[in-house]
């Protein structure tokens, strides 16, 4: 591919991203200062990335790291808070909240 073709593709992508950002800004402006009902535009939703669910392995890695730094008892308390004795017993819907609780360990 020639340099001009690459540049042309990059410019087109910048235009698409710019249009998506403008659509998002307009939606947020309308939501906070307008009618309160966001207007969903097709071009904005097609650019919005999917949010991947947090996996057990990702949570396990974070908890293991915190445990190695001396927060084993705190990790056990958090597991109890979410109704489990071990990580595999925790509902995956609670992974985000569990990670948020884990993140603050040692920061306070």
What can be said about this structure in brief?
The chain is an all-alpha fold. It has helices spanning 3-33, 42-47, 56-81, 95-103.
Please supply descriptive tags for the structure shown above:
108 residues, 2 domains, elongated
Topology overview:
Layout lengths: L2 H31 L8 H6 L8 H26 L13 H9 L5
Helix pairs in contact: 3-4
Secondary structure class reads: mainly alpha
Number of strands: 0
Helix content: 55-70%
Strand content: under 5%
Oligomer: single chain
Secondary structure tally, helices: 4
Are there runs of 5+ residues with pLDDT below 50, and where? Answer: none
Strand count, sense and closure of the main sheet? none
Q: Between the first and last Cα atoms, what is the distance in angstroms?
A: 54 Å
Coarse shape:
elongated
Q: Overall mean pLDDT score? A: 81
Radius of gyration: 22 Å
Q: Name the helix and strand elements from N-terminus to C-terminus, one letter apiece.
A: HHHH
- Count structural domains: 2
Give a verbal description of the structure.
- The protein is built from 4 helices and no strands.
- It folds into 2 domains: about 5-45; about 55-105, no CATH class.
- Helix content is about 65%, strand content about 0%.
- By secondary structure, the chain is mainly alpha-helical.
- The model has no long low-confidence stretch (mean pLDDT about 80).
- It is elongated.
- Helix 3 packs across helix 4 (about 95-105).
């Amino acid at each position: 591919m020639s340099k001009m073709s690459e540049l042309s593709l990059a410019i087109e992508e910048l235009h698409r991203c710019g249009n998506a950002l403008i659509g998002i800004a307009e939606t947020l402006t309308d939501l906070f200062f307008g009618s309160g009902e966001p207007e969903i535009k097709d071009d904005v939703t097609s650019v919005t990335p999917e949010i991947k669910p947090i996996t057990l392995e990702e949570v396990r890695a974070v908890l293991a790291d915190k445990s190695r730094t001396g927060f084993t008892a705190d990790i056990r308390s958090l597991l109890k808070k979410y109704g489990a004795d071990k990580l595999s017993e925790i509902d995956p819907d609670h992974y985000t909240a569990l990670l948020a609780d884990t993140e603050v360990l040692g920061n306070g």
